[in-house]
Amino acid sequence: MDRAPSTARLVCPQCDLLALPASLRANEVSRCPRCGVELDRGTYASREAALAIAAAAAQLWILMNVFPLVELSLAGTQRQTTLSGAVVALATHGMPALAALVFLTAVAAPGAEIALALYALARLESVAQSGALGRMIRWFRTLRRWSMVDVFMLGSLVSIVKLAHLADLVVGPALWACAALLPVLAFLGLYVRPQKLFAGSHGA
Known about the structure:
59% of the residues lie in helices and 14% in strands.
């Protein structure tokens, strides 16, 4: 495990110790020398692979918002709803606060998170030279705190289980896209970090 040539420092989230970043191979882990908390983890992915995965995330996000989530058949009547349709239904049925929360956490924040990752990875050198890379990473972290696709997915599954004995349900493409988006966003959260992006900008 070699020391990275970058002058950047890692801050331990547990004890706030400043540590030198290390050049990690895949599956290698660097830990805080004081408290042992994991500071960084090596991955197989290159910047180009991360960019391709971010592009795939964008396509999955579009599918999740355009196609139906579920199709419900009850007494010969078929209904289907999209994510945006669910937000509108909540707003028109006296729950505007819940509608705004669903829109923010399941639509807006994940979309902005993916767009920011795409921009940072595609224009890494110019962003780093302009001094905006650190600010973009802070924005990305803030968006990740509000991006709750996993919570939305869990809530959808609970609703499907509860409605399954009342009507015939068919899972739509949007819900499958939502399920596929979960590991993709997890990977982006692993790659779009200061030590990864700063190392990529110096190595380019």
